[in-house]
Amino acid sequence: LLARVDGGGNTDTLKLAGADLNLDLTQIDNGRIQDIEIIDLTGSGNNTLKLNLNDLLDISTSTNFLKVIGDTGDKVDIELSNNAF
Question: I need a labelling partner for 85 at 20 to 30 A (CA). Which of 2, 57, 58, 76 fits?
Answer without folding.
Answer: 2
